[in-house]
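Page 42, continued from yesterday. The earlier attempt failed because a stray header line got pasted into the input along with the sequence. Redoing it now with the clean sequence only.
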Amino acid sequence: MRGKKRLINNNIVAYKVQLITEEWDNLWKMTLDEAKQQASSKKLDLMEMWRKWDIVIVKMLDFWKFLYKQKKLEKKNKAKWKSPDLKTLRITFKIGDHDLEIKRKQSERFAAWWHALKISLMLRWRENNYWDIANNKIISFVESLNEIYKLEWQIKRNWNTFIAMLKPIK
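This time it went through. Structure tokens are written below.
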């Protein structure tokens, strides 16, 4: 059936149904009451699988087990198609060597999870007069990441901010 809503047990409206067991064996056509009796004798639920005109196909199964498997499958598929996030690192003009080393280790962790990386360096007040030193600082930081990241496009300067976009090397 299309959509998330599945008809089960007493919500199924039909006179004749085609019953399918848990192992996908076809028990052919019977009345809905007979199908309900067979399902209740095995302590299972009836779920409507497909409906077209006078044909209603129902399956005997444990509905809560079915829901659990569906949610587990959806979660697995959702995790499979999750796109890598863009992580941002901000460094400053006056950043120390130890702080740069911490940022480098942080970017290595991001690379392990295949995250793209955006590095920004913002200049403030009088630091704007020394943009060439800031440019060298961000270039040296990006070059220190050459083993795990590659530069996606050249480092850009936008007023008082330098931006570098990096992609993990596969």
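Notes: The longest strand covers residues 149-158.
Reminder to self: strip header lines before submitting.
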